[in-house]
Amino acid sequence: MSNSSVFVLPEPLPLEGGAVLPTVQVAYQTVGTLNAARDNVVWVCHALTANADVLGWWPGLFGPGCHFDPADWFIVCANILGSCYGSTGPLTPVESGAEPLYHAFPLLTVRDMVAAHEQLRQHLGLARIHTLIGGSLGGQQALEWAVQQPAVFGHLVVLATNARHSPWGIAFNEAQRLAIFADPTYHAATPAGGQAGLKAARAVALLSYRSYNAYGNSQAEPDAARLTDFRASSYQQYQGDKLVARFDAYSYVALSRAMDSHNVGRGRGGPEAALRQIRARTLVIGINSDVLFPPVEQQLLARHIPGAQYAEMASGFGHDGFLIETAQITHVLERFYVQSFAH
């Protein structure tokens, strides 16, 4: 059903921070069939540690019988620069025969991610995208892309994201990077470097992804006499181990720094002016329990993107609700598309 491919950019990629990547590859997947009118394209921008397999990490929203069913849609998801799932990043050589750059990998920004994926879009010959969708870091990328290419996207759906990364979000990311930097193996620049630090970083991140009530509901201790080895402690350990098994510390640092750089208003007269450049029919979805990207940030998006609709989900899952609450998201999307087609 899905096709996995790698696109190699024809030229070196100049980065916003001033460096140049001599060779860049982008791993991507397509699912479904492009129709004769070429107007059924859904492009998905993934979050921090996800990959191009959107059916794998967003089940319930993408897949057979879901709102975005490959029987109806041609779905594209590309791995972002800096990641460790096939696109150029800290563990991939940026020149033939060279060693990976590890912690010397240059600063990436969300605009650099967009630049690479824009070249992929042109390579695939997709003049128009019916829907561009993303949450969290993926939402930041989608917003930046919709500002840059207002004529390309018919619909824009962003979840649990913002126009500019907040001091609160940057502080959370810095706390995670400090955990990684405190691991001496990170500085050794080997593929397994920084694993203990990455485990600690993931434990910090989870506190921003979930909520007080989420932990209370799922990790409450049934044994009042227990003095140690609490369920919440085990959960943090387990989640840290899970990420270490599938991700790397160098990519985590590169991508969290890219998230910190996100500001659609940079060089454009501020976020509000930049958002007014978006022409896609836009749906902005917030989550009432999200402490990392609180609803006030999505409300700002909806106020300044022309004609945007805002919906807020009630969820006990916090920020992670954008990956979990697929039934609520589907309901909101169905209403959004009905209203869109009415126009």
From TrEMBL:
Q: What broad class of enzyme is this?
A: transferase
**What EC number(s) does this enzyme carry?**
2.3.1.31
One function term, GO molecular function aspect: homoserine O-acetyltransferase activity
What GO terms in the biological process aspect are recorded for it? Answer: homoserine metabolic process; methionine biosynthetic process
- Compartments reported by the entry: Cytoplasm
Which residues are involved in binding substrate?
A: 202, 320
Location of the active site: 136, 290, 319
Its annotated pathway?
A: Amino-acid biosynthesis; L-methionine biosynthesis via de novo pathway; O-acetyl-L-homoserine from L-homoserine: step 1/1
Specify the AB hydrolase-1 domain's residue ranges. 41-323
Q: Which UniProt keywords apply?
A: Acyltransferase, Amino-acid biosynthesis, Cytoplasm, Methionine biosynthesis, Transferase
How is this protein annotated for GO cellular component?
A: cytoplasm
The record's catalysed reaction(s) read:
L-homoserine + acetyl-CoA = O-acetyl-L-homoserine + CoA
Q: Which Pfam families match?
A: Abhydrolase_1 (PF00561)
Q: Which residues cross the membrane?
A: none
Give the protein's biological function: Transfers an acetyl group from acetyl-CoA to L-homoserine, forming acetyl-L-homoserine.
Assembly and interactions?
A: Homodimer.
- Identify its protein family: Belongs to the AB hydrolase superfamily. MetX family.
User: By its UniProt entry, which HAMAP family does this protein fall under?
Assistant: MetX_acyltransf
**The protein's name:** Homoserine O-acetyltransferase
Native source species:
Hymenobacter daecheongensis DSM 21074
Q: What gene is it encoded by?
A: metXA
